[in-house]
């Protein structure tokens, strides 16, 4: 694959990479930034998202050959020296492996649910506003073969730069959609035949004793407040037993435990 | 509890809080920084570490009454306005709840192992150099009632400021000790009658099918390279089954799954 050497930070071809951290805050008008070789591998192999360009630190080009072979053939690959990369990004980019992807139009929840297999496992998130947690939950969803992640409107964007990075690219692989409200999410999942389990410290059944049906949605809420009581009342509840005196589990850790338990990965799903 | 109002960032009584981020790098000569109400609650109730002082943003004092009641009675509580706090810390401290604790002398591994109950669960870490992972693993260890965390010398410090914060104070509660080498760790645990399971993607038994004896040590290695092959050869191995095409699990997430499975918390340990 040919690459284009860029010598001027003001070159219009790399302006999508300008002021990376500031743009995290104001948004990118339908684009996202993918960082690092593992994430680019996922971006290129999952093929859920169009790729606009790749930008590499010049000394990284040699090690990226196999990754670039996976990229769509027409994607421009820009290569720049450290000073140019730092100047355009607005901070020191010591790793220097970047791509710009294009977001998809929001997928209607019913379309996504309608596309899922007869036996399905989905993650339902309510109020997950922390990008580290969002990324970590996507990573667990991918690791345990969840078919989709469904969000309520108070969740943060899974395609935020840090969420993608923490997800190790899983946010570019696992399909997701946003419901109009958390209540709408419950209604749509019920209409599509899903059992719905809310993870809650006061859940009725311990996770290891819970059994799933063909279609299962697992709900996770924010760490501090958890899922809203009115929502929990409409769902079956599952708890993760913890030691007395320290009943505090990170929501991503809770998702790892529950997804592992209910996953068919390894052929021993419950 | 009486508090002392501090008006001068150069006041010698608060110099342990000076240049917080720079001191993270050079070390604190036997001290550590605890941040946030939940962490201070744990510092004061676990009582594993001596407390030198507390420093609060003045508008946080009112909400800290119940926490301060848990503190040792002779601990000085300093209160400062935002400008003084920011000036001494060297950056904007918008939360403003801090304490300085004193590290304990390193506990010999045999002493710690000798103090554990007949039925015991410990976490053994080899090469965990990331403070987020260290903190998250301690949080999981506390949540699932692990009796100790054992480190090899290539692990980072669990009392590093960020590790304590991510652990939500668990690093101040769960006893830990450092072995001279990873091989020494294996030998000492064997001498104390521990079964030793290494978590590895190529483990012989899937986690949910593994059964423990009275004393169990669970080994976790770095995310990239995992546990050294020579070490794995000396241990029983356990895997966490993952989906094809995304066999990537964060080490803290792996610890959550394994600790939950082997924990007696909830009265249903395996």
TrEMBL record, chains A, B:
This is RNA methyltransferase. Pfam families: SpoU_methylase. GO terms for biological process: methylation; RNA processing. Keywords: Methyltransferase, Transferase. One of its GO terms (molecular function) is RNA methyltransferase activity. The keyword Transferase applies. It comes from the Bacteria. It comes from Borborobacter arsenicus. Residues 121-260 form the tRNA/rRNA methyltransferase SpoU type domain. The keyword tRNA processing does not apply. InterPro entries: Alpha/beta_knot_MTases, Ribosomal_eL30-like_sf, rRNA_Methyltransferase, SpoU_MeTrfase, tRNA_m1G_MTases_N.
